[in-house]
């Protein structure tokens, strides 16, 4: 099922579902051990030497008086030195004084980086994270038929799915999307979040059982533009250790390994990263091409039995401890294999909704061809559709919504190369079909 890019106005209509987190005014309210904050500030000064109080406050994302308090402690320990800021234009200084580490402070920073390589805003506590995720539960805001209709308004064939997709979203239960490759399972799944006109707060990182776990990812989270408040009052601000984002939509396919579902770090980056399902909290987590992962399907599916049933997940941390995190997201499995052959009945029972995707109707398929051709500034010759439908019958290929986009694209390449009229003729169509499909008439992929 193919559509034009998502309307950019959707992002502007998003409003936070939960109340904004308040700005912490004390270390007790911060919810993180003071020693953790001290070590983080030492690393920040090591990474950004001769930084002003304002710069350090922005890096730490906490109140300036808390940063001043820690700096005073570090100075008493002879870990931080004070310097006069360099003069700017007209002899003005940018912040009067700046801070750098002493020789002893540099050694302390090296030790801190060895213990924990995280560098960023102060983490939020696991308790605060748990409360925020639960407050942003998708099930707390009812999705209506109109919401889903608007979200899929330019998806061909969507009207046959709306009546089941809406209740599936409201349930919060896992989905199984199955059907032939190219029927748009994954594409529709990614569009489901458009029916939720709410944004969510995602923490930069979470502190849990002695470990800092990085949660926010520029790859998986899209920030919502905010208007800068001109007021300095705390009531008009919120805790900047959180980022206001669109609901996350994370998709992973055959490359999925079990390590991605645990707290881990890359070979070159020793920062502990949240597993994919933690990054996807309050959004959707799509496991595409189920059955093509390197581990057995049973192993992968068994990993989700407890989270799907009880809405929490257990994670093992680097120090050997185990924590419990909320599992409040829409988990969607997508496959073009027969569900009965890749899973046992006990697991299928736990999947609240099993939704089959079918090829388009002929009228929908034709309309999609016309729309995409116009988008590429191409015309379709009167007898081209007769040739197209003949090819489908000859090769027993369904009216899959991925085909028009791909074949129209190939047709445009042929027309540009031949420098011919911008018209898809039966001849151009046949040439495009031959290079798109393999010799047995099968080819293409899911969109």
End-to-end distance, in Å?
7 Å
Indicate the radius of gyration in whole angstroms: 27 Å
**Structural class by secondary-structure content:** alpha/beta
Shape: elongated
Supply the CATH architecture of the largest domain. 3-Layer(aba) Sandwich
CATH fold-type name of the largest domain: Rossmann fold
Helix content: 25-40%
Overall mean confidence score, pLDDT: 88
> Going by CATH, what is the homologous superfamily of the largest domain?
P-loop containing nucleotide triphosphate hydrolases
Specify the biggest β-sheet.
5 strands, parallel
Question: Which CATH class of the largest domain?
Answer: Alpha Beta
Can you tell me the residue ranges where pLDDT is under 50 for at least 5 consecutive residues? 1-9, 88-94
Alpha plus pi helix count: 19
Number of domains: 3
State the total count of DSSP E strands: 18
Kindly report the spatial arrangement of strands forming the biggest sheet.
11-12-15-6-16
Organism: Vibrio xiamenensis
Protein name: AAA+ ATPase domain-containing protein
InterPro entries: AAA+_ATPase, P-loop_NTPase
Molecular structure report:
The chain is an alpha/beta fold. The chain folds into three domains: 239 residues, 3-Layer(aba) Sandwich (Rossmann fold); 88 residues, Arc Repressor Mutant, subunit A; 75 residues, Helicase, Ruva Protein, domain 3 (Orthogonal Bundle). 38% of the residues lie in helices and 16% in strands. The chain has 19 helices and 18 strands. The strands form six sheets. It has a five-stranded parallel beta sheet. Strands 1-7-10 form a three-stranded mixed beta sheet, with helices on one face. The longest helix has 17 residues. The protein starts with 8 loop residues before the first helix and ends in an 11-residue tail after the last helix. The relative contact order is 0.13. The N terminus is likely disordered.
